[in-house]
Write a structure and sequence with these properties.
Distance between the termini: 25 Å
Protein name: Peptidase M16 N-terminal domain-containing protein
Pfam families: Peptidase_M16, Peptidase_M16_C
Order of helices and strands: EHHEEHHHHHEHEHEEE
GO molecular function: metal ion binding; metallopeptidase activity
Structural class: alpha+beta
Strand content: 5-15%
Mean pLDDT: 76
Shape: globular
Strand order of the largest sheet: 2-3-1-4
Radius of gyration: 22 Å
CATH superfamily of one domain: Metalloenzyme, LuxS/M16 peptidase-like
Number of strands: 8
CATH class of one domain: Alpha Beta
Low-confidence stretches: 182-229
Largest sheet: 4 strands, antiparallel
Organism: Trifolium subterraneum (Subterranean clover)
Keywords: Hydrolase, Metalloprotease, Protease, Zinc
């Protein structure tokens, strides 16, 4: 289950909260815990753009002819219905702070410096998924729940099923039974500004988004906090003006020259392309 929410969706006072949700939701799931008795393996990770939960399980066990419904049920609970218990939150922020200490190596710091340089003009340079220690300790269940409600819903996620699958219609039916995609057109009191940020004032009147090509009407009225809209996949992010990490004007730059000196025997160069 790939939820399209990561560290770049965090506000200034939420740095690391997507990673925190990954920990609390995944390790707090009782349904996922029960699957471990079947020989299943599970894990999760958070990056700049995604929160991903994955379960590797057998298709059948001696007690069950079909384990997929249980796997889907566990993913549903993890991604969309976690229990944000205070005891679990405190346990996980301690684990995250330990993780932060363990990954604080010279290689990690070099990678961070590289990313900060390459993306100096955008949010990637300031939103590393691990977050900030001084903020992680302060969040309560209400703070974490609000971020979850903003981003973690089925239309903003992609479900992948890979394996020994023969009956596709049956699989689709099982997905629907688990309520992943049905009954999720509920109205949510979410401000347009919280979903689209600074981009909201630049959107065209109609924007085709989400699954099935539905539309969100964008007008000056939708800026009102009291207005509602369907929760749908976020189709746009604020545009970024790239300076390609070069100081000064880039108008008259010459293309790079490629050569090989006759005495050079061992040499490597890394070239990065920014999308």
């Amino acid at each position: 289950m790939e939820v399209h929410a990561g560290s770049i969706d965090e506000e200034d006072d939420e740095q690391g909260i997507a990673h925190m949700i990954e920990h609390v939701a995944f390790l707090g799931s009782k349904k996922c815990e029960k699957l471990l008795e079947t020989g299943a393996r599970s894990n999760a990770y958070t990056d700049f753009h995604h929160t991903v939960f994955h379960i590797h399980a057998p298709t059948t066990t001696k007690d069950s002819d079909d384990l997929l419904p249980s796997v889907l049920d566990a993913l549903n609970e993890i991604a969309f219905h976690p229990k944000f218990l205070s005891s679990r939150i405190e346990k996980e922020w301690r684990a995250i702070l330990l993780e932060l200490q363990m990954m604080n190596t010279i290689e990690y710091r070099v990678d961070c410096q590289l990313l900060q340089h390459l993306h100096s003009e955008n949010k990637l340079s300031k939103r590393f998924p691990i977050g900030l220690e001084e903020q992680i300790k302060k969040w309560d269940a209400d703070k974490i729940r609000k971020f979850h409600e903003r981003w973690y819903f089925p239309a903003n996620a992609t479900l992948y099923i890979v394996g020994d699958i023969d009956n596709i219609p049956k699989i689709v039916s099982q997905i629907e039974v688990c309520c992943f995609w049905t009954n999720y057109n509920e109205k949510a009191s979410v401000a347009t500004t919280s979903a689209f940020g600074a981009m909201a004032s630049f959107l065209v009147p109609k924007l085709s988004v989400g699954l099935g090509g539905n539309s969100i009407e964008i007008s000056t009225n939708t800026m009102d906090q009291s207005k509602t809209f369907n929760k749908e996949r976020q189709a746009v992010r604020p545009p970024v003006k790239h300076n390609w990490s070069l100081p000064g004007s880039i108008a008259n730059l010459k293309p790079p020259q490629i050569f090989q000196h006759e005495l050079l025997q061992n040499f490597s160069i890394n070239m990065f392309c920014k999308v």
